[in-house]
Design brief:
The protein contains 16 helices and 18 strands. It is of the alpha/beta class. A hairpin with a 4-residue loop joins strand 13 and strand 14. Helix 2 packs across helix 12, helix 5 runs parallel beside helix 6 and helix 6 packs antiparallel against helix 13.
């Protein structure tokens, strides 16, 4: 088999001279079992293992995790499930060299997604990359360019794209089922506790923290959060807050239903990381997370508009009838999208369920699905076998645009983080923000929710983000260099994500 070894591959890729003519590492025949390497297997990676194990067309041949104790447990589990032990690696670059791998499936933290996808595709593999497929906008562009240049399949882990309920509901909207639709509201009302005080915590044994940090800042020997796994979501060097965690599922559906295959023209976010001081009864408490747990992001697409509401505190009693009408008042979490049409509404209330209403809130159609996750892996495998990227339900461009909604909203928030204001001051600013929402009503609901959770806004006020203008074609902010600087990051040597023209 014609292969590049690791040294040749990494030096070509680093020099930006890996080309489409680079030899493919493997060319599985149409009926051959596809070899899978699952990367990052603590939590979501288990679903990747389950999904590929479930499909008879694939076999899991390698597991990669920088935490050896987690990785070895999954190796034992896969050996038991499929009767064949996969090889274990801690370094993705060694796994890329391993024979018999056709698919790389990544469920690592967000700061690694783009590089995993790019390295995988440059070495001749098809890739399934979790949402958000990138940690910043430029990384998304690079992934799109890589998939195109190397002719690889790149599926984004937004599995609602393969939900028959959501697909049928989006078709219903496209066919005019609720009239003309120009506005969608995405909701991530998802209770998130404090991740503990900002501190200096030990790195767990059997963890390679250098590799975990990869393209992000290397803070060794300091871990600033209590829990090593998962809680990185709320530290911006690695994660993207809940706007960029749960958010991309809903921003994706909102764009889909509105037919928006592009970035917005203007963005404004207000919010904060609020409420943990009240919970801890310590107004000086500093949580280790530095992403917003409360964000209202307004996206102007010209004649259409998306508003995305992120809440991390309890939402039981403070949603307001306009939300509860679609989601009910049971439980705290409300995650989904509401489309507002000229003749009715459509609410996506879970990955398996959507409901269409007339303007009097009578149900006109119900959409249900099963096994959404399996369907998404199966769709990816269909595309890998047929070598037809147009079959992918969530290709790299879809993933990039939907992650982009979250990244743009967060950039507005980060730029205005120190610019605090009272609800009255925010109301005055909102009067000048173009939106198809009732901006005052959404602000009032947000303030009621915070006050209802004991937040004293005079002590811990909301932040007023930057009002940003964006050029969807060039993917650059207009007249704001501080914002443009946040479209990328500083990469560590050896972990650079190439520019799109250098993939
Ligand atoms: N599609 C979905 O519904 C869904 C659901 C949950 C999570 N996710 C996504 O999955 C990803 C992982 O989330 P999680 O909750 O499992 O996080 P986690 O922190 O629990 O697990 C991440 C795993 O990746 C490993 N890892 C980190 N860097 C690595 C590297 N360079 N090489 C190999 N392994 C590495 C970690 O050791 C850990 O085992 C996130 O991006 C998240 O957004 C998607």
């Amino acid at each position: 088999m014609n292969r590049l070894n690791r040294r040749q591959f990494t030096s070509l890729a680093a020099a930006g001279i890996a080309t489409a003519s680079m030899p493919r590492l493997r060319a599985a025949g149409p009926n051959e079992t596809l070899g899978v390497c699952v990367v990052g297997v603590n939590s979501r990676g288990n679903e990747h293992i389950r999904g590929f194990n479930h499909d008879p067309r694939t076999e899991i041949r390698a597991i990669v995790d920088i935490d050896e104790s987690v990785g070895q447990q999954r190796v034992a589990k896969v050996a038991e499930m499929q009767g064949k032990k996969p090889k274990f690696f801690t370094d993705i670059r060694d796994a890329i060299d391993f024979d018999g791998i056709d698919i790389l499936s990544a469920a690592t933290p967000n700061h690694w997604h783009a590089l995993m996808g790019i390295w995988g595709m440059q070495s001749g593999k098809d890739v399934y990359v979790e949402k958000p497929i990138c940690h910043n906008i430029d990384e998304g562009r690079a992934l799109v360019a890589t998939a195109k240049k190397y002719g690889r399949m790149c599926q984004t882990g937004t599995q609602c794209r393969s939900s028959s309920a959501v697909r049928d509901a989006m078709q219903f909207i496209a066919e005019g089922g609720i009239g003309e639709v120009k506005f969608a509201r995405g909701l991530c009302y998802k209770r998130r506790a404090s991740i503990g005080p900002l501190g200096d915590y030990p790195i767990p044994e059997k963890v390679n923290f250098d590799l975990w940090s990869g393209p992000a800042t290397f803070t060794d020997p300091k871990l600033t959060r209590r829990n090593f796994h998962y809680d990185w979501h709320w530290q911006r060097h690695y994660g993207n807050g809940d706007l960029g965690n749960q958010g991309p599922h809903q921003t994706d559906i909102a764009r889909w239903g509105l037919g928006l295959n592009r970035h917005p023209n203007a963005i404004f976010t207000y919010g904060g990381r609020l409420g943990y001081q009240t919970e801890r009864k310590d107004k000086n408490y500093v949580d280790a997370g530095d992403t917003g747990n409360t964000e209202i992001s307004i996206y102007d697409y010209g004649d259409k508009c998306i508003v995305f509401e992120t809440r991390g505190l309890d939402c039981k009693t403070t949603s307001g009838p306009e939300i509860e009408g679609f989601f009910g008042n049971e439980g705290s979490n409300k995650i989904g999208v509401i489309f507002y049409g000229s003749e009715g509404y459509l609410a996506q209330t879970s990955y398996e369920h959507c409901t269409a209403y007339d303007l009097d809130m009578n149900v006109i159609k119900d959409f249900r699905a099963k096994n959404v996750g399996d369907a998404h892996f199966a769709n990816f495998i269909d595309a890998c076998q047929s070598r037809d990227a147009s079959k992918l339900n969530a290709d790299a461009l879809m993933g990039h645009l939907s992650a982009g909604v979250s990244h743009l909203g967060n950039i507005s928030y980060y730029l205005g983080e120190q610019n605090h204001g009272s609800p009255d001051e925010i109301r005055q600013i909102l009067a000048g923000v173009k939106s198809l929402d009732d901006n005052d009503a959404t602000l009032k609901r947000t303030v009621d929710h915070l006050v209802g959770n004991g937040v004293i806004l005079e002590e811990t006020p909301l932040s007023i983000g930057a009002q940003l203008k964006f050029d969807p074609e060039t993917e650059r902010f207009i007249g704001n260099e501080a914002a443009n600087a946040m479209l990328t990051r500083e990469y560590r040597k050896g972990f650079e994500v190439p520019a799109p023209e250098n993939v």
